[in-house]
Sequence to fold (286 residues):
Amino acid sequence: MTDTPKYKLASRQWKSEKTIIDVKGCKIGGNDLFLIAGPCAVESEDQIDQVASYISNLGIKFLRGGAFKPRTSPYSFQGLHKEGLELLKQVSQQYNLGIITEVMDLSLLDEVYPYTDIIQIGSRNMKNYHFLKEIGKTDKPVLLKRGMDATMEEWLLAAEYILLGGNEQVILCERGIRTFDTSNRNTLDIAGIALAQQLSHLPVISDPSQATGNRSLIKPASLASIAAGADGLMIEVHNDPKEALSDGPQSLYLEQLKEMLPAFEKVAQAVNKSCSWQKEHETVNV
Ligand code: PEP
Ligand code: MN
Fold:
């Protein structure tokens, strides 16, 4: 017999069928593999326009991009703030893309809220419980990154805080945890993706970019995530990664993203998932 978990609303015991979150026509947690791509941070009009136009041509429906960035060093680029949000809005309208961007602090919620379709809660905030409670009162889907030092139980209890507030639209995002081995930026918990699917009804996606810190590992980490049952992927991509103001080494070149999509589809098919973005891309390109 399995023990009753400490989290309740997030558990499969509470709700056995999977939660499907419908946002801008995408059904996250459904049969279709959900893809989010974009730069770590919004840097300029030219940068975000190039990335947004490219990914929308690939059939990808969601653009990521930080306007407020949680950087380890206060001397690193902190984001364009309001200007970044305005640029996200501009390209989302132009290319009909959904937006996901991070709300880094409760004091920024009102400012960011109107600009985003999915609220990203960063790894560093996964244990900010007062913040999670307040996010639970919002009515937009929330992408909850796993804390870099969080156990599976702590991660699901963090989701519980949001669910308890009344917001049932929580997407879990595995983004690697810190282990003794520093050869990767973090250690992507592949079995943790499968376990989260067993323990919770919430959609689970994978962020291979923060997990590996290395663009040469994005494809294998993505394929492994899909094979483990991830409902989607969030991948960093940049028009000029060498000049990126944040997370350049882990950001894909635009063409690299395009080249790996057919392999995503093959592995997705092996686990009975569809890739509607791929079909639309083919239709656009015939
Ligand atoms: C990011 O997605 O760019 C990011 C900062 O993520 P995390 O909170 O997982 O470090
Ligand atoms: Mn990043």
